[in-house]
């Protein structure tokens, strides 16, 4: 009897994975994200037949709304360009849709859907009342002037504005969308709607509704999360050799907090290559190159000629280290890179980027007893602080840096302890991937059950 129930439930999960592949052809990243979550929650879905009876997985894998639109803009030479804009409003069971905007040439529906799907679970883990969404465009801000970026953002918002709002959908930044872009987007939103509705976008400037710590939050939160993992084995960051891929928002503030806690960041990268400095990377130089000049990481060598540069970004994972933070993009660590890290004795791998490790890479870490922190838990500090920004906006208040930082630290501690406890409850001690997926799934699924078939 119990066998037949197991078989039915297993085939439910498998049939949903199959359905997602058939209904979303060619969207490999979305298939990957769905498979990763559904396969890990299988034992829990088997325990509660009401999830199948209520079509929870069918609904959980189908976005509530998908918006695709044309974004025409004019460059500095007067030529017309057309990009494609997206907003995927995936799930609003826990609150208004919330998730970043990504401007990058690789953006297509498969990337948008995987990010929005993941965001639903991540947002659930923060304990804040926010649903999941993601958006963006295949526009490439690299090499564009400020005026071109402004015109693009204005055109993008001219369509997006009708779909968003403080109670509806609240976009934020992601790859290629930082404070500058949020400023242009907010300006256009305000102009079209004639409303200074600060709670409609997060990641705003401090003087016009932004929150202190939002810029640092994803990186700081990631390090606070790993600090908890290390504490559990009687360790700290003190003296640890750390490598961090990327050199954008997440990478920079991860590095800053690691250094503050006594770790040594020995390598950092961008999509062109890797800088290795065994003496420890000088973060101020990186900030000068990346945040001020919007330059390439190779320029680090001008200030530090003794550092080494390698023009293959993936080679960062061959560097010996104690802790690795992939903070650049999806699927940057596959089996080969994971094996190189394991062979070099890595102790912790924590995902700052979204889905930077393939399922095979994660399996390799878990088999080799590497402590592994999955993105939806470890990088949730950014969106959690965005939710704190929304709270301040609705109260017409601004909290101090210390206040927000403490709240962020507490949220990261809570996420760690809740997913660790869930893993233990199901006899999967230390499996934070399982713990994160199940904790988030149960929260979203139960809210969906409460709200009926919508
Ligand atoms: N910004 C946030 O608050 C936030 C929150 C959660 C997750 N994330 C995720 O973190 C990752 C980075 O986002 P970000 O906001 O720092 O973006 P960003 O645009 O500020 O930085 C991205 C960095 O990655 C580098 N990069 C891109 N492709 C690369 C590659 N193949 N190899 C090495 N470097 C590469 C870029 O050169 C850049 O330095 C993304 O996966 C994003 O979804 C961001």
Describe the structure.
Belongs to the Glu/Leu/Phe/Val dehydrogenases family. InterPro entries: Aminoacid_DH-like_N_sf, Glu/Leu/Phe/Val/Trp_DH, Glu/Leu/Phe/Val/Trp_DH_C, Glu/Leu/Phe/Val/Trp_DH_dimer, Glu_DH, Glu_Leu_Phe_Val_DH, NAD(P)-bd_dom_sf, NAD_bind_Glu_DH. Residues 1-9 have low confidence and may be disordered. This protein is of the alpha/beta class and 454 residues long. The chain has a seven-stranded mixed β-sheet with strand order 9-8-7-6-10-11-12, sandwiched between helices. It has helices at residues 2-23, 28-47, 50-53, 56-60, 109-125, 146-160, 179-193, 214-232, 249-260, 283-292, 300-303, 335-343, 359-367, 375-378, 381-395, 401-425, 432-450; strands spanning 65-74, 80-91, 97-103, 132-137, 169-172, 241-245, 264-270, 273-276, 308-310, 323-326, 348-350, 371-373. The chain contains 17 helices and twelve strands. It folds into three domains: 2-60, no CATH class; 65-197, 3-Layer(aba) Sandwich (Rossmann fold), CATH 3.40.50.10860; 215-369, NAD(P)-binding Rossmann-like Domain (Rossmann fold), CATH 3.40.50.720. Bound molecules: nicotinamide-adenine-dinucleotide.
């Amino acid at each position: 009897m119990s066998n037949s129930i197991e078989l039915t439930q297993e085939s439910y999960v498998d049939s949903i994975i199959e359905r997602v592949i058939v209904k979303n052809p060619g969207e490999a990243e979305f298939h990957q994200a769905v498979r990763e979550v559904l396969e890990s929650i299988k034992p829990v879905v088997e325990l509660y037949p009401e999830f199948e009876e209520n079509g929870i997985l069918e609904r959980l894998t189908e976005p509530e709304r998908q918006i695709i639109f044309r974004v025409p803009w004019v460059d500095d030479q007067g030529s017309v360009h057309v990009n494609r804009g997206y907003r995927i409003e995936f799930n609003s069971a826990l609150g208004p849709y919330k998730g970043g905007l990504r401007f990058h040439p690789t953006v297509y529906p498969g990337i948008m859907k995987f990010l929005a799907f993941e965001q639903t679970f991540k947002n659930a883990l923060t304990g804040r009342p926010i649903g999941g969404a993601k958006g963006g465009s295949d526009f490439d801000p690299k090499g564009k002037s400020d005026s071109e970026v402004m015109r693009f953002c204005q055109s993008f918002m001219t369509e997006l504005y009708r779909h968003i709002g403080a109670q509806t959908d609240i976009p934020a930044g992601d790859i290629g969308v930082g404070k500058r872009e949020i400023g242009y987007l907010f300006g256009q939103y305000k102009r079209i709607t004639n409303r200074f509705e600060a709670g409609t976008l997060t990641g705003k400037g401090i003087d016009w509704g932004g929150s202190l710590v939002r810029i640092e939050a994803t990186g700081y939160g990631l390090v606070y999360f790993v600090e908890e993992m290390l504490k559990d084995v009687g360790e700290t960051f003190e003296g640890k050799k750390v490598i961090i891929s990327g050199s954008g928002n997440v990478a920079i503030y991860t590095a800053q907090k690691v250094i503050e806690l006594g770790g040594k960041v020995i390598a950092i990268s961008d999509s062109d290559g890797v800088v290795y400095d065994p003496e420890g990377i000088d973060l101020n130089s990186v900030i000068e190159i990346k945040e001020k000049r919007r330059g390439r990481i190779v320029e680090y060598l001008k200030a530090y000629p003794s550092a080494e540069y390698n023009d293959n970004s993936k080679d960062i994972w061959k560097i010996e280290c104690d802790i690795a933070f992939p903070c650049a993009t999806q699927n940057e660590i596959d089996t080969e890179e994971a094996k190189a890290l394991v062979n070099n004795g890595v102790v912790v791998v924590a995902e700052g980027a979204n889905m930077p490790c393939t399922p095979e890479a994660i399996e390799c870490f878990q088999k080799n007893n590497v402590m592994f922190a999955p993105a939806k838990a470890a990088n949730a500090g950014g969106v959690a602080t965005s939710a704190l920004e929304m709270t301040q906006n609705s109260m017409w208040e601004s909290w101090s840096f210390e206040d927000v930082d403490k709240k962020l630290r507490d949220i990261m501690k809570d996420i760690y302890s809740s997913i660790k406890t869930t893993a233990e409850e199901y006899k999967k001690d230390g499996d934070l991937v399982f713990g994160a997926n199940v904790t988030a799934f149960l929260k979203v699924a139960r809210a969906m059950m409460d709200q009926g078939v919508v």
